[in-house]
Each structure stands twice: as C-alpha cells, then as structure tokens.
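Memo to structure team: turn this sequence into structure tokens by end of day. - J.P.
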Amino acid sequence: MRTRLLLISHPATAAQRKGTFPADDPLDTRAVEEATSFRASHAGLLNADAALSSPAACALDTARALGLAATIVPDLADADFGRWRGRRLLDVANEDTNALDTWTRDPSAAPHGGESFDALTLRVGGWLDAFEQRGTVIAVTHAGVIRAALMHVLQAPSARFARIEVPPLSVVELQRDQRGWTWWPAPDRRS
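Reply from structure team:
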C-alpha cells in the first residue's frame, strides 16, 4: 500500500499578519473561520487514515477546526527563530540588518541563535525518511516545514528554499512507493 501525505499549512495568525516571527501563536477568530470554511469546502480532501500536527498552537487549532483528531509530531514544528521569535520583522531588519540579510541568503546560517534552513530541512527530511504510516495521512504544519519537505523530496539545492511559496491553508501532496517520495499536484477535492 502506498503512502499519501497531505501537508496542510495553517492559516495566517494575527501575529503573522502583522509581520511578526512566529511565537507559538494560537489562531484568532479570523483564522479559525478561514480553517472552518476550508473544512466545509474541502470535506472530501479531509478523509484520512491518520492526522498529524505540529505541536504549535496555530497548527493544533487548525487541526481542530478541520475536524481532525491529530497526533502531535515534534518534527513538524516550525523553524526555531531563536532571539527573533515573536519580534516584528521590521524591527529585526532595522536593528540587525546584516544578520537578517545573511539568514535570508545563506541557508546554513542561523545568526538569530535558532535553526538554519539547512537544519530544518535535515530535521524534516529525517522525519520523511523514517515515515512508516501507510494510507492517506494529513499533517497540519507550517509553510517553512512544507518548503523543507519539498526541498528534501526534490533533492533541490537549499539555496532554492526562498523560491517556494506556501500560502496559508495550502495543500501539498507527497506520495511514497517503492521508488521513494514524489511530489504530486495539490488535490482539489471540494465537497
């Protein structure tokens, strides 16, 4: 039996809409309504054999709004933003311009004391390589984690990370068979 993994990015949190680095923010009313609307319009997509979630409040809130009883998977956590966690991007850009510039251009750099993109990709890639569940699995997580999963599956150079956009409530489908993981077009199973 093949494995079908649907990675769903959580809706934007109020902090993200204000340009703030994530800090385990829960979903606000607007984001819960967006996830609930997604659930109503994509009911056929949400039928799965298992559901997983990042430990972050926004991912767990999303899973609940989608009607999923998700198991927490630490490897689905967002990147560790170190001392930038919870800070506005504009403030970091004004106070630590060189470090921010280095971080955005060098995937191995973590000048904020957190996790580099390369480290995130290694973590997520290790999780995918060890993944043993079969059937259809939904994982609610973060845009950066989904980017890292795609980079791992495609074996793309880490410098291409910034060229992948993952909007809120996006779905990326990965499938695994005897050849390994492959990326498939996002399903559109609206009810």
